[in-house]
Amino acid sequence: MIQTVATTPYDDQKPGTSGLRKKVPHFQQPNYAENFLQAIFDASERAPGATIVIGGDGRFFNADVVRKAIRMAAANGVGKVVVGRDGLLSTPAASNLIRQRKAAGGIILSASHNPGGPDGDFGIKYNIANGGPAPEGITDAIYRRTREITEYRIVDEDAPDLGTLGTTRLGEMEVEIVDPVADYAALMDTLFDFGAIRAAIAGGLTLRFDAMHAVTGPYAHEILERRLGAPAGTVINGTPSEDFGGGHPDPNVVWAAPLVDLLMGPTAPDFGAASDGDGDRNMILGRGIVVTPSDSLAVLAANAHLAPGYARGIAGIARSMPTSGAADRVAQKRGIGLFETPTGWKFFGNLLDAGKVTICGEESAGTGSDHVREKDGLWAVLLWLNILAVRKASVAEIVQAHWREFGRNYYQRHDYEEVDKAAAEGLMESLRDRLASMAGQRFGTLVVSQADDFSYRDPIDGSVSTGQGVRIVFSGGSRIVFRLSGTGTKGATLRVYIERYEPESGRLDMSIDEALGELVRTADAIGEITKRTGRAEPDVRT
Ligand code: VG1
Ligand code: CO
């Protein structure tokens, strides 16, 4: 029986960089999740009887909202829902399922790398029929709907048991519970030379994958250990837990420190990797080396043709604006297109759909290709393994050879977390006010050549996104970018991105401090970071 329940709007349901993210208790307010879900059903296009995919990263509150979403789908004319067993689907696996099942869209429950648990974060994101995050036109429509909502629809029957595979009915709607790993693993098998990787592992290539107690555990156990023959124990922290073992499932040098220590130590395996809460990010390490995400994107783009799925070469590369220009050098030398988009995977969807690019990436540890419409952590791991298996060189050798061929973009991101919101907004405002007069200004040895607030016109649909981050470029090409995060749930997070290019013939083996020290000091001088935020140091350097 369909129930229509009266409700009143919340005024803070505007989706950010990647869906709506709030603290769990915030989401547990009466009708908070229901309102947002109903707004998705109201504002998204769907033929009657259409299929939608539902699943999430398994964090606390995931199963509750999966059951709610199933019951609301049944009351909103959805013909069929495809749901991951136990409500689990990694973000790239959900994207794949949407495409495979020709679904009208998907509801992905995740706050990605943010901590989970009763006091942690939760999130809801809507993906469209191409498998990718809804573009701004749709997220804006969802937000407008949340502001005027007066009722939501839900069936009063319980959702079926999420642990039992197979198809049942809920009212008029079909509910299919699927193995979350099977279709995804099959897709990976079509893209990569599993035989070559298996042979390399059998021949002595050693690896370690840290699933960080998050959703990729079951995927990595199946693919790396069972299909590729890596020994048991290769995948660590491989059982998803509702609070990610109490940690941040964020694959960077701070939150994945034990893995980094292993790879820097005397018993390091050849290859190390980690993924985030919902499985779309990746960190790549080799013995004695952490590969920056921007370098990883460039290396993957330059070597993708070594994997069967990309043997014909790649059409082009897209990167988010704050991501380093390392990929640009690859595009230039190989004569393929390079697109610079705002932060967030939703901006890659049109370029991928139009066949303009094959590989995309972000400095925030996101890399992916046209095989789905999300970034994909395990995909990046497998492409690296495929490249290692073919080139028979170490990670460090591959990266150093890459720098010798394309030059090196020294790069670091500084995050200032939970900064006072007004102070952070004031900092950005002040930068914007000074942009017009900045060109020609000198800071130490650095002279500003160009300063602007990034705006993007989508080359496919013509939509324009403004205010995407302040860029200050110096003569010689070094660059500082300032922007505020759109995924945080408390205060504001200021991100400062610092980059310096050294050509092939230049100094390729400096330490990060040596290469970027002056730029870091300049960022503080121009941004007045310490003065305005009261912070002498960033919380995270990645
Ligand atoms: C961050 C990253 C961005 C990424 C987004 C979602 O956004 O910077 O590159 O696309 O998270 O990733 P922001 O607005 O906080 O800088 V995930 O793995 O959190 O879905
Ligand atoms: Co994520």
From TrEMBL:
GO CC annotations, alphabetized: cytosol
Keywords associated with the record: Isomerase, Magnesium, Metal-binding, Phosphoprotein
GO molecular function: magnesium ion binding; phosphoglucomutase activity
Iron-sulfur as UniProt keyword: no
Alpha-D-phosphohexomutase alpha/beta/alpha domain segment(s): 13-152, 190-285, 294-406
Pfam name, any one: PGM_PMM_III
Cofactor: Mg(2+)
EC numbers for this chain: 5.4.2.2
Family: Belongs to the phosphohexose mutase family.
Protein name per UniProt: phosphoglucomutase (alpha-D-glucose-1,6-bisphosphate-dependent)
Organism whose genome encodes this protein: Aureimonas pseudogalii
